[in-house]
Every structure is written in structure tokens, then in C-alpha cells.
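FYI - complex with NAP, inputs then prediction.
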Amino acid sequence: MPDAVKIALVGIGKIALDQHVPAIHASPDWQLAATVSRKGSVADVPAFTDFDRFLDQHPEVSVVSLCLPPVPRFAYAKTALMANRHVMLEKPPGATLAEVHALQAIAADRGLTLYATWHSRMAHAVAPAKAWLQGRTVTRAHITWREDVRKWHPGQDWVFEPGGMGVFDPGINALSILTEILPAPVHLTAATLTFPENRQTPIAAALTFSDNVTADFDWRQTGPQTWDIEVATDTGHLALRTGGNVLEIDGEPATGEASIMGEYPALYARMADLVRSGTSEVDLTPMIHVADAMTLGRRVVTDAFHF
Ligand code: NAP
């Protein structure tokens, strides 16, 4: 692969190993040239534990993909940009909105690519859902995003620490889809956030937006998991199920121009396009809704949570 661009992966944990490494290995656009992680590594890839040392020793690696949790990610992102590397961010793009604005300013100043990824927007049925909704009037929409935190984040206490976002860590995926497919923007008007008595972030959230849009996020669902978005319009009803991968129109399966790429291969293809064209992509809309929910939310306290 003579034209493959060298990329380094930082924060070798669950999502790096589950998704990023296979997507990079399978892509002709990329060569995984190094990893940077305090403990994690990838077979047959040079592994660093110190980010500055990696940057010093590998000036030819022009792109860095950051798979760390949101709180520690900013320092790595800023350091990478200051070292003139293009940067790809896992979702959510930061612990705060302001720190992502700061990264945008540095990237723009230096002519570098900054890509704030939203993997759920790349789910198979999101683009056809967006196309179907274009030109229709939405009369109501509801998100049901209920999953088992013990299954998807085993032992990851950072999700319950400040900046970890709690149930908004998966919920922001739903919001990334909603904000992609709705033909007109909505804004949050009320929220009820349920906090375990021993934790800093919510385990459940009920959100109300303008224009009859509501959302129900819950991390306590065992058994079958639910990642559904239902949208009623003046001319029919759309349902996106299984995290944006299955589309139904008026209760019947529909396909449309469904994406054939997986979510992470599609993210890396997009990053390759952005680097080639010298542009950035940073849409903070999903995170604005989360920040607004944290600002406006009514607090309810529930039972202690232990992994
Ligand atoms: P994780 O496994 O808990 O963390 C990833 C790695 O980051 C860890 O293995 C650790 O590697 C490093 N790290 C953690 N805290 C650090 C710190 N304070 N300083 C430096 N390095 C640190 O998390 P994850 O599940 O992969 O999630 C990472 C990001 O991906 C999150 O933003 C999450 O929302 C997103 N995401 C996760 C999933 C999922 O299914 N888990 C799906 C989609 C997106 P070392 O100990 O080796 O340094």
C-alpha cells in the first residue's frame, strides 16, 4: 500500500481494539504505524507509552486518532495539533464544548484537519432515513435508548466521573442521529436526570425538546437492548431501529440507499477524504443538547450503582 497514510492510535482500550484497529487494518487508506497507550498495545505495531516521545521520534506519522475517554483526550489532542498532526476524535468530541472550540481554533490556525467523529451517523440506515424525511413536516419524534451499562462498559468507572457523561455517553449517539436526520433543528426545553446516589453522572435521562421531540435514555436495561428512534410526519411514520441500522416506513421494512460500509470503516474513509482535501469536520450539535440537559436538568437521586 504505497499511498497509505501513516496513522497512530492513542488509548488502546475497548473501542480501539473492537473497532479502530480492524477498520484501519482493512483500509487501503491507512497504515497503523504506532500506538500510544500506558498499558495497551496492538500486535506487530510499534508501541509507545509516552506521547511526546512518539511525536518526537515519528515525524512521518501525520495523523493521530484519539480513542481515550473524553476527559484525558483534550491534552493529547492539543499536543498533537501543536505538533502539526491531523487529529481524529472519538465521540463525544470533548469533556466540554469550549475545549473543542479551542481545538478547532488551533487546527484552523495551522491548516490541520480536525474530525469530530459520530460513529452512529454512519449506521446503515441513517442516510436513507435522512433522505426520506427531507421535505416532510415532522409532527413528533421519540428516542428510546435503553441498554445495560454493565454489558457495554464493564468496570469503566470513568463514565460515572465528572466529564464521563453517564447515560449520555450512549445517548449522545442517538442525538447524533436525530440531529443528522431531522429536517429542522430542535432545542432542549426540559430534562429529568436520574443520578445513582454514589455517582457523579446520570444513569437515566428523560429529555423534552421543542417541536414534540422527546428522548428516554436508560442504562439499567437488562435483556433485549433498545436503540430506536420513531418519527411521525405529515405523510407517514419512520422508525430507525438497532442504533440506526434498520429502517421502517409505516411499519414496513425499507432499505433506500443504505450504506454498505460499517460505521468505523466509514469514519476512516471520511477522515482520509478530509485529510486529502485539507478540511475539518466538527459538528457539536449533539453535545450542545447534552450540555443543555446538564444545565437545565432536574435532578432525581436513585439507588447506588456498583459494577
Ligand atoms: P476505555 O477502554 O475505558 O479507555 C480507552 C483507553 O484510554 C484505556 O484503555 C486507557 O489505555 C486509556 N485511558 C483511559 N483513561 C486514561 C487517562 N486518564 N489518561 C490516559 N489514557 C487513558 O474506553 P472506551 O470504551 O474504549 O471508550 C473510549 C472512547 O470511545 C469514549 O469517548 C467512548 O464514548 C467512545 N466509544 C466507546 C464505545 C464502546 O463500546 N466502549 C463505542 C463507541 C465509542 P491505557 O491504560 O493503555 O493508557
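The chain has a mean pLDDT of 96. Residues 5-116 form a domain with the Rossmann fold fold (CATH 3.40.50.720).
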